[in-house]
């Protein structure tokens, strides 16, 4: 094998290219009818009442927390095993995250730890479950706990398109759900995100705050009966709207979301079979009636049986021309979070152990069958080399 296989690549086809060109020729580049179409298509796809397109999942999570009323002095519960975006938006609003540990198999929020954190803290406003790798959190437990304690639930579904929980597609079961279309995610618009909710008040608030706290977005201004120059500012809002250029890509990516998922699931199955006898744990597999988005494929190396650590294993994979990554460096090990809240590495033993042993393999629809076989060969070869 001569060419390096990158850890992640988007799959962009002629339909996306034609739609972007059409948008560029139209002269309407910012939020307009393509964005509205993408929102409508998306709401239908996940079965949500309302969808709002934004320029990133980070923006969407910020808008969501603001809409449910999180503010200075409040606390929001999420896990340490996530990307910093999940927690940073809590700080944007002057609130503090309460980080909890994960389940050792799914790497998702541990409901028992959630109960414990609620018992130990005051001023908790919301819970932010992260559907790690595209495997749904235990939403029955999380929603029941939220109801019991009158807390809002905002799902970080950056990995979870499409994901189901007991047969229902993620996107309509909690207060607000937020998706990412960052270039490495399950569908990509370069940068972009989507918010879904069943709650019209939240939707209206987020729509206003998405564009400067103005009560009508640009497109509405040019198409409704009020004079085009008229608008009212009701809050100091943000600049989080999606462009029609990005939406043009999203419309056609969304059409392939199920096909992309099926290809990733097939790759995961090849990996699971190939690695069953190697010194490593293969990822959690969703129950048969549920969909796992397979955004990530995270192996846990059995370091006790190896002469090298995870970092060295990754180096050896790179020498075999396979790009890999690590998801995630737990937040409590990151300087900002560690220093602000005085975290010790052992405060979250499950997350720490998973992190030390975790290696993410390439899993994306642009991979050919040969690419998949090359990843398998590399993992087998390196495993053999490092076996004690
Ligand atoms: C990628 C990611 C985000 C942020 O997504 P952006 O669209 O890049 O803002 C948030 N949470 C998780 C878990 C992610 O992986």
Q: In words, what does this structure look like?
A:
It contains 14 helices and 12 strands. With 388 residues, the chain is an alpha/beta fold. It has 2 domains: 14-257, Type I PLP-dependent aspartate aminotransferase-like (Major domain) (Aspartate Aminotransferase, domain 2), CATH 3.40.640.10; 258-386, Aspartate Aminotransferase, domain 1. It has a 7-stranded mixed beta sheet with strand order 1-9-8-5-4-2-3, sandwiched between helices. Helix 10 (257-275) packs parallel to helix 14. The structure holds pyridoxal-5'-phosphate. Pyridoxal-5'-phosphate binds next to helix 3 and helix 4.
Structurally, the number of domains stands at 2
Our estimate of the beta-strand percent is: 5-15%
What is the β-strand count?
12
Quaternary status of these chains? Answer: single chain
Order of helices and strands: HHEHEHEHEHEEEEEHHHHEEHHHEH
Question: Quick recap of the structure?
Answer:
The protein is α/β, with parallel strands linked by helices and 388 residues long. The chain has helices at residues 14-26, 33-46, 57-67, 84-92, 111-120, 139-148, 200-210, 218-223, 244-255, 257-275, 310-319, 335-341, 349-357, 369-386, and strands at residues 50-54, 75-79, 96-100, 124-127, 152-156, 164-165, 168-169, 176-180, 193-197, 280-281, 297-301, 358-361.
Q: How does the SSE layout of this entry go?
A:
Blueprint (H helix, E strand, L loop, with lengths): L13 H13 L6 H14 L3 E5 L2 H11 L7 E5 L4 H9 L3 E5 L10 H10 L3 E4 L11 H10 L3 E5 L7 E2 L2 E2 L6 E5 L12 E5 L2 H11 L7 H6 L20 H12 L1 H19 L4 E2 L15 E5 L8 H10 L15 H7 L7 H9 E4 L7 H18 L2
Parallel strand pairs: 2-3, 2-4, 4-5, 5-8
Antiparallel strand pairs: 1-9, 6-7, 8-9, 10-11, 11-12
Helix pairs in contact: 1-9, 2-9, 3-4, 3-7, 10-14
């Amino acid at each position: 094998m001569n060419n390096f296989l990158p850890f992640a690549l988007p799959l962009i086809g002629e339909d996306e290219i034609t739609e972007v060109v059409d948008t560029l020729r139209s002269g309407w580049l910012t939020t307009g009818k393509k964005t509205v179409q993408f929102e409508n298509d998306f709401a239908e796809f996940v079965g949500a009442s309302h969808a709002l397109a934004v320029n990133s999942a980070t923006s969407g999570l910020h808008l969501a927390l603001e809409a449910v009323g999180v503010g200075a002095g409040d606390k929001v519960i999420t896990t340490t095993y996530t990307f910093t975006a999940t927690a940073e938006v809590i700080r944007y609003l002057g609130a503090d995250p309460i980080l909890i540990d994960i389940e050792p198999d799914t790497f998702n929020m541990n409901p028992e730890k959630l109960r414990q954190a609620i018992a130990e803290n005051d001023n908790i406003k919301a819970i932010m479950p992260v559907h790690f790798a595209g495997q749904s959190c235990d939403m029955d437990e999380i929603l029941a706990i939220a109801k019991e304690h009158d807390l809002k639930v905002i799902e970080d579904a950056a990995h979870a398109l499409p994901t189901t929980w007991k047969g229902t597609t993620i996107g309509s079961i909690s207060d607000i759900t937020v998706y990412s279309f960052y270039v490495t995610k399950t569908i990509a618009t370069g940068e972009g995100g989507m918010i879904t909710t069943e709650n019209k008040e939240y939707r209206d608030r987020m729509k206003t705050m998405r564009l400067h706290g103005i009560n009508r977005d640009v497109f509405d201004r040019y198409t409704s009966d009020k004079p085009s120059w008229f608008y009212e500012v009701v809050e100091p809002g943000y600049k989080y709207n999606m462009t029609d250029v990005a939406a043009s890509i999203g419309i056609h990516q969304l059409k392939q979301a199920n096909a992309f998922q099926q290809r990733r699931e097939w790759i995961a199955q090849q990996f699971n079979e190939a690695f069953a006898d190697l010194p490593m744990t293969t990822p959690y597999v969703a129950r048969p009636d549920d969909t796992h988005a397979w955004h990530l494929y995270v192996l846990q190396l059995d370091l006790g049986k190896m002469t090298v650590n995870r970092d060295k294993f990754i180096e050896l994979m790179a020498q075999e021309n396979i790009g890999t990554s690590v998801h995630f460096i737990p937040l409590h090990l990151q300087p900002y979070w560690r220093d602000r809240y005085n975290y010790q590495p052992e405060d979250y033993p499950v997350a720490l152990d998973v992190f030390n042993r975790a290696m993410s393999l390439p899993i994306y629809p642009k991979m050919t069958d040969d690419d998949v076989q090359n990843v398998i060969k590399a993992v087998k070869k390196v495993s053999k080399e490092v076996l004690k």
